[in-house]
């Protein structure tokens, strides 16, 4: 039995579909392998209590301003200062450090913005900055972290545990 040109065309189309499906499956498998280990970060809001490493954390307030005035001087924002107040309880029985570098802003383009050291120091009375000392075991501290945010819509603040094993997001809307 001789095949017609139409049958040959159908067979070639079937072969192309099978090859294309195989390539697509392989590419998806490669992407899944690349994404393995990446996790989606849960996002919280103001006034939600969240466990981050050995600390229970709650963002209590957000204020936007163009100027931070300290005890002896002031600083002007290049964009807008986001003053984030929080409470943090050490759940362990031993003193633990909390550093300013654990707090970052996630901007709409995916880049991270570090906290402003000077503004964070000026935002609280002299010597009272949370990141200048260890948090004693079972102690709850109140702190303020300040970001100088460029004129873009703000998406989230990220908080990472001191050992880097856990990161959570907070919406600052």
List keywords for this structure.
alpha+beta, single chain, about 20% helix, Immunoglobulin-like, 11 strands, about 170 residues, 2 domains, about 40% strand, five-stranded mixed sheet, DUF4352, four-stranded antiparallel sheet
User: What best-fitting shape do the alpha-carbon axes yield?
Assistant: elongated
**Which band does the percent of strand residues land in?**
35-45%
Total strands: 11
Q: Helical amount among residues, as a percent range?
A: 10-25%
Largest sheet: 5 strands, mixed
Distance between the termini: 72 Å
Query: What is the CATH level 1 assignment of the largest domain?
Result: Mainly Beta
- Please give the radius of gyration in angstroms: 26 Å
Q: What name does the CATH topology of the largest domain carry? A: Immunoglobulin-like
Q: Which second-level CATH architecture of the largest domain applies?
A: Sandwich
How many helices? The count is: 2
Structural class: alpha+beta
Order of helices and strands: HEEEEEEEHEEEE
Strands side by side in the biggest sheet: 1-11-10-6-7
């Amino acid at each position: 039995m001789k095949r017609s040109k139409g049958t040959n065309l159908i067979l070639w189309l079937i072969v192309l579909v099978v090859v294309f499906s195989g390539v697509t499956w392989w590419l998806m498998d490669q992407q899944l392998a690349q994404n393995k280990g990446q996790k989606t970060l849960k996002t919280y809001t103001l006034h939600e209590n969240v466990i981050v490493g050995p600390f229970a954390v709650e963002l209590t307030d957000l204020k936007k301003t163009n100027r931070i005035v300290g005890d002896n001087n002031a600083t002007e924002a290049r964009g807008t200062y986001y003053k984030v107040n929080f409470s943090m309880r050490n759940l362990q029985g031993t003193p633990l450090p909390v550093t300013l570098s654990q707090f970052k802003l996630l901007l709409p383009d995916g880049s991270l913005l570090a906290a402003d050291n000077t503004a964070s120091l000026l935002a609280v009375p002299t010597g009272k900055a949370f990141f200048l000392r260890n948090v004693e075991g079972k102690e709850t501290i109140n702190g303020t972290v300040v970001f100088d945010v460029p004129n873009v819509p703000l998406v989230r603040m990220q908080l990472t545990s001191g050992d880097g094993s856990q990161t959570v997001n907070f919406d600052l809307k």
